[in-house]
């Protein structure tokens, strides 16, 4: 309480401010490492849907996806990693991969990406 005005002081201490700053910095670093993997996943999902729409055979679908890989700089998957099936008269292309991100030397963040050219999720 301030003696002159009779009001209590409010605010954050220096230690509290440092603690909050460390948490925010840690979250920013994690975000900077995760965002590129999410961007790559979105490029893969887009390429898979495009390949499923363009191709009529397994070889055509794989070749179409390989062109997308070369254009969009995708390093995680290739055409041979795709699971290609046919449901009725529609080609369905599925993919799945894990991405491991090093946070600190013994600590890693593992993200499991799954997707399909159909509107539903990977099953």
Q: Ranges with pLDDT <50 over ≥5 residues?
A: none
**How big is the Rg?**
24 Å
Major beta sheet, specifics?
A: 3 strands, antiparallel
Helix content: 40-55%
Q: How far apart, in Å, are the first and last alpha carbons?
A: 62 Å
Number of alpha- plus pi-helical segments: 2
The chain-level structural class is: alpha+beta
Overall description:
This protein is of the alpha+beta class. Helix content is 46%, strand content 24%. The protein is built from two helices and three strands. It has helices spanning 14-54, 58-72; strands spanning 83-87, 90-104, 107-116. The longest helix has 41 residues, at 14-54. The model has no long low-confidence stretch (mean pLDDT 89).
Task: Describe the structure concisely.
By secondary structure, this protein is α+β, with helices and mostly antiparallel strands. It contains 2 helices and 3 strands; from the N terminus they run H-H-E-E-E.
């Amino acid at each position: 309480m301030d003696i002159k005005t009779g009001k209590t002081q409010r605010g954050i201490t220096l230690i509290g401010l440092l603690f909050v700053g460390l948490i925010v910095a840690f979250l920013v670093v994690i975000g900077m490492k995760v965002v590129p993997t999410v961007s790559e996943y979105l490029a893969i999902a887009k390429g898979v849907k495009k390949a499923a729409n363009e191709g009529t055979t397994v070889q055509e679908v794989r070749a179409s996806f390989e062109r997308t890989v070369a254009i969009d700089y995708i390093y995680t998957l290739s055409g041979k990693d795709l699971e290609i099936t046919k449901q009725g008269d529609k080609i369905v292309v599925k993919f799945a991969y894990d991405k491991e991100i090093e946070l600190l030397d013994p600590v890693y963040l593992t993200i499991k990406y799954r997707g399909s050219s159909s509107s539903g999720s990977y099953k």
